[in-house]
Design brief:
alpha/beta; Aspartate Aminotransferase, domain 2; Aspartate Aminotransferase, domain 1; globular; seven-stranded mixed sheet; 14 helices; 2 domains; four-stranded mixed sheet
Amino acid sequence: MNGEKLKLSKSKDAFEVAKKYIPDGVNSSYRSAVVWKPYPIFINHSVGSRIYDVDGNEYIDYFMGYGALILGHSHPAIINSLTEQIKKGYFFGLPHELSAEVAKKIVEGVPCADMVRFGTTGSECVQAAIRLARAYTGKNKIVKFEGHYHGWHDYIAVSIHPPIKCAGLESSPTPVPASPGIPRNLLENIIVLPWNNIEVLEKCLERHSHEIAAVIAEPLMCNSGCIPPITGYLETLRKLTREHDVLLIFDEVITGFRLAFGGAQEYFNVTPDLAVFGKALGGGLPVAAFAGKKEVMQLLEDAKVIHSGTYNANPLSMAAANAALTLYQSEGGEIYKRLFKIGEKLIEGLRNAIEDTKVNAIVQGMGPVFQIFFTKRGVITNYREACAANQDQYELFHKELLKHGILIHPSMFERIAPSAVHTDEEADRTIQCFYEALRYVRAQQ
């Protein structure tokens, strides 16, 4: 593909068939035609840094399974680990030694992790972490930040991407359910704050700490584009929560094992009380975990606090996680050096392309995860500033990149997530395509 019209007729046909049996033709709202306009791309196979759709189109993939695939698609070590485990058994429903082996790796590498429990999805592990925080503190309210995403379950699916007209004041956001079907009485236990506003955070904890069990946050905001914490914000967040006897939960479903083996808490040197992991943990297999201080996690012993799941620590997911974590740690963390190097090269190339084409846009983030916003602002620090960026121009950019064989997510509220297997040659080609796509966006202004 060199910018010609993209042929997706087989994806369209597959989508029409799927809609006969599956609501909206997809199994996640974020894969729907509302997001992937006019219909989602259906994938046939993938390997390394490349993904291939049912129409035979080949893409250099920077979507990477929402960031799960640090090692790229179909990594041989993960395939081998899965193959060996299948021979032993692919489901037990009972404890097995491999889960402790994987947990040990996490405990040894993640700053907050004295103990670990496994689940299947990030959503359910966030729910477990919130339950633990409430049980440990004896308090009910949870503070979350506007624009942060912590899963789709009722207890925290609030003010994810709320319409601004419904969201109240920026300094005191109104909790907005993310979906019909979420009981409004649940909002009584959610306090929504603006991200990166220390003054509002401090006042909230001073007034309400007696009823707040925990503050939950993406330490690097990755679900409204890529919005880093301002200097000192995470340190202040940690200090204030500790002073007010409020637990701090980091949602590291995206940043865990991507920014560093120890996640964002290692990268930013700020240690929470609890943390949730997913995506990169399994190298592409469905697995999640929550980890934290021993005195909090021990509430799970003797079923004092209930956490269960038929497929928790499934042998195949554990085999994949074990292989992935082993590779992340190999050769002194060489994978992270590669991941940052290739990502920073793409960021620099994209920034140069923005400057040269004179398009109003900025790039935010760091090598392993970043995003482009079409805006005249010099920096975006919270959800409302991100909302003001031009989504239409971002969609044009996305579609033009697709025509050139480059795959990123079609929403500016997602992120670009390179892998450690992307090559310098692929980065060079991608940067050339950035130029072409930005010229196209400029021409449509």
